[in-house]
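Same chain as my last thread, 312 residues:
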Amino acid sequence: MLPFSSSPYEAGKTLDVSVTEEGLPPNKHAIQLQILRPIQPYTLSCVMEVKLPAGFKSTKKQAKHAILKLYDWRYAAQLRKDHKIDPWTPDHEAAYRAFVETGEAAKFISTLEDNDDDDSDDPQLWDTARDETFLYDYCRDLHSCEVEAYSRLQDLQGRNIPRFLADVTFDAFPMQQNNAFFQVRGILLELITGYSLADLAKYAPQSSWQRICDEAIHTINLISDHGVLNEDVKTRNVLIRRHENNEVVMIDFALCRFREMDQSEADWRHEKCRQDEEGAIGYVMAHKLNGAVEYRPSYRFQCACTKCTDVQ
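reply #2:
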């Protein structure tokens, strides 16, 4: 059977969602969000610019538009491609619904979490229902990770990273409300108007390139100061605000790891050194701009172990 002709995330459509705004106690209520434009291609999530309802209180400047990021495994094209799972179809939906309604989906996730050494853990033996349940669970983890990152980085919000406006729940399957397996989780974020660092040469004068690249690396280090290791640092995940002195803003924190309370300095330094978040910006931009900017590594997370010294 052919894939669905379209996702529910098209310009002009309205989504009924439940949002939880930060506060004591948290403010949970239902709102409608109008989709203004999908931001494609969809990767690990479905991202779109939306119109906020009148009176939405979570923005200091009372912005009218925001970014809605939904971890909808059904239409996250890159996620499905990475895991070699075919596009979502009516057959996929039918298999997934049945798996959930019989209680098998919950059992399957428990098996994955327990990591038992049996055949049910072998992806080669999975069917469509198990593939979809795995993606559902994976997207829940991505959502939890990003929410945790924004919480840890709260003092950087609105300046170095977007402001976190609300946690979002969307009942994605008609007539199946209040069942977590039929819900899509997401987040509502401040809209950053600008361009990505990958397009720096296209939009900014050369005289500003070094300062902007240095600021991007400084922002990475500010995030590191909060015990966050970002495994998805890419030039496209760095935005430059327009009309605000080319202020640098980092986005996308669904693939982060966090320093544990009992993690040693040596172990954390090793992990950060191996990831080299600075280099993911510095080396890439120096090459991309043909040496017009200079990257000088800070070596703040230099590690002396054999694995790290082999690549330094």
